[in-house]
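User: Fold this; tokens only.

Assistant: Input:
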Amino acid sequence: MISALSALKNVETLPNVESASVMIVDDNRANRHLLAALLERGGITKIELAVDGADALNRVASFRPDLMLLDLMMPNVDGFEVCRRLRADAQWGDLPILVQSSLNRAEDRAKAFSAGATDYVSKPINASELLARVKIHLQHRILINDLQKFRQRTEAELALARKMQEHLMPAEAQINQLPEVVGVRLSAHFAPSSELGGDFWDMRRDAKGRLIIWLVDFSGHGVGAAFNTFRLHAILKKVTFVDFDPAAFLEDVNRRLCGLLPSGQFATMLAGVIDAAQDKFFYASAGATKPMAWALGAVQPELGENSGLPLGLTRLATYENRSMSLTPGGRLFLYSDAAIELPLNEAEVLDEAGLVEVVSNCLNERSDSVFLSRLLALLQKKGRFDDDLTALSLTRLV
């Protein structure tokens, strides 16, 4: 400690560490107090002194240091064991542990780092070197804490935004009323690829009492795509539904959306209506995925059409009405493109033919929710989704 003692009067205050706390662990009383005096001269005043390793482990939770200055050679519980026990506890996984020891062999240093030490200084302590390393580790600790707080705040805000986005879609109570109100049973799956996504779906009834359904998929995902879902939801709130015409609806939405989307962004959308009087699902597509429909007892679904420009590209876009048979007991399956773009390997994706094959393996499940669960399980065996996934299963009851 001679080097530290002689340099003590020349120590400069360490910047930006005044609020930091340091625990000194050393079985030598003189060393403890000299190190404390050195740190105090450097501007660190929140200091806890532990007389050995066991004492340090007993007091670390109550003191919660930002850095531990740890001697290696101590009776009972030595510094190596202190490192191992602290690193075994997740709450101390990133605590800087600055080891100070007279053991200078390479194998001793390697053993200390293997046990969990962050840094290593040799005795006799050089005051300037020690304080420089203390400063670096404390500043890193402060930065990490700031980043963790920022991350926690960001995650909380994203969780709130995700709840808001989920509220854009029909509530469970609305879905549960469908069998009685419109004679249709519906089950939905929504899973953004990140905290927020660019997919959403919704439903309405027109003046004839028919069920209107649409599914939207904005380009990209994350915050930017989520903002666009809020934009479109606000637009759709202003639309009136009298005698619903899917193609005219898409043309109206497209004109309104063109002036709002940032350059280069667009959305695919499928909008349709179940007409029980005609046993049909009438729909129009703005570059959306092809809908699937099948009758009870079918062995393979019918695949619809998807031609039509995505929304937001040009105000002049027009769309075409199409239809699919949907008799009582028949089922309709709508999905976002994550289902057909599911990566199978580095070079291949599932594609439409692959999805038809997977759907064919479970299309006659009596429950819509069971159908979706089984379908998703089969898809997840094939690969991992890297985009937002929305899937809707609708069964006509009457």
